[in-house]
Design a protein that fits this description.
single chain, alpha/beta, TIM Barrel, 7-stranded parallel sheet
Length: 380
């Protein structure tokens, strides 16, 4: 199946904050890291910094981006201690040199530190990439709450622009739907920001079909971001993926590798730091469910062995083959893992292979909810 180029996620303040609001793929974690690295200390080779990107593009609404994007969250937060700033910048810049033009972040990742990292890393070639970030929270220790009031949106966008070292945000998502603010008001606020040139495209994260339709009627929605992977398929059942196809809205899966599980490096003995790793609170990452879901990884590994590929590459190739308007943003914090993820671009599943994967997966059961009950209250 070819890659279609068609236009078309305790009382200690930090712990309490995590327990109340950790959100997979859009995870929330207070970390002490600050962006202090100077871009002058991390060189971009002269032969590569202006390299013509070879990766084909896909459309998120009218926003054209590379067929594979880069999720930047895990560099700064939520999958353990933050990576070193220098390594994070090198990884992001290597992604660009490898053809990636779409980079995903959010104000709440860190909070704030990931936006600073992305802004620093992409500054040398800002005009050649698209940056996506997100709003939707009132951030402040020890608690955090939803806040999508129009005046708040406009305030935090100014702050994001400063951290990202840019004059516009290519794709601005509402991170989570705020039940206290009509979605029409949210869309109207973003429409104002688009008219002012501070935002170019509008997106929603973890929104249901009714919300998407209402928002789209006020300001065209370019992209929906929701958890979606070979093992997590809720959007195939709740109408969201079909609606994106109907309205020519792009779809950006967060957690396209099952938050790392589908890479095959996690097992029942894998420890997860309850203070630094959001997966420690997720049902699918209990020791019991990590073991129970291993047949899914084994299936991907069987296909990978026949294709001289890895389980991660098969999982990403499956998503790319699913719909031509899907753009994966697999996260990584190091160059070797980045190279593995981007290798999925060269794995083209035939129609027969794709169908075989679907048939074999249908025989399996997925154990554990994608997030716990508290965290799912943030999702529609």
């Amino acid at each position: 199946m070819k890659h279609d180029n068609t236009s078309q996620k305790d009382e200690n303040p930090r712990r309490k904050f995590f327990q109340q609001t950790a959100i997979a793929g859009a995870g929330l974690m207070l970390t002490p890291s600050l962006i202090t690295a100077s871009s002058g200390n991390i060189e971009i080779s002269e032969q590569n910094k202006d390299k013509e990107n070879k990766m084909t593009t896909r459309n998120l609404g009218k926003l054209k981006v590379s067929a594979l994007g880069a999720g930047c969250m895990s560099i700064s937060a939520n999958y353990g201690a933050p990576a070193k700033i220098e390594e994070g910048i090198k990884t992001i810049r290597k992604a660009y040199e490898s053809g990636v033009t779409f980079f995903d972040t959010a104000e709440v990742y860190g909070p704030y530190t990931n936006e600073k990292l992305v802004g620093e890393a992409l500054a040398p070639f800002r005009n050649k990439v698209a940056i996506a970030t997100k709003f939707g929270f009132e951030i402040g220790a020890p608690n955090i709450t939803l806040n999508s009031r129009p005046e708040h949106i406009k305030k935090v966008v100014e702050e994001s622009l400063a951290r990202l070292k840019t004059d516009r945000i290519d794709l601005l998502y509402q991170h989570r739907v705020d039940p206290n603010v009509p979605i029409e008001d949210v869309a109207g606020a973003v429409k104002d920001l688009i008219a002012a040139g501070k935002v170019l495209h509008f997106g929603l994260s973890e929104a249901n079909t009714a919300t998407i339709r209402k928002a789209h009627a006020v300001q065209p929605v370019s992209a929906i971001q929701t958890e979606y992977s070979f093992m997590e398929r809720s959007v195939e059942k709740n109408g969201v993926l079909d609606l994106c196809e109907e309205l020519a809205i792009g779809f950006v899966p967060w957690g396209p590798l099952g938050m790392g599980y589908l890479a095959g490096q996690l097992n029942a003995q894998t420890p997860f730091d309850s203070k630094l790793d959001l997966r420690s609170a997720f049902e699918r990452f209990t020791a019991e469910n990590l073991a129970a879901n291993m047949p899914i990884v084994n299936l991907l590994n069987r296909f990978a062995s026949n294709r001289n590929a890895t389980a991660s590459q098969i999982a990403l190739a499956w998503l790319m083959a699913k719909k031509p308007f899907i753009v994966c943003i697999a996260g990584t914090r190091n160059i070797p893992h980045l190279s593995e993820n981007l290798g999925a671009y060269d794995v083209e599943l035939s129609a027969a292979e794709f169908q075989e994967l679907e048939t074999e997966f249908a025989k399996l059961k997925v154990y554990g909810g994608r997030m716990n009950a508290m965290q799912m209250t943030f999702c529609q």
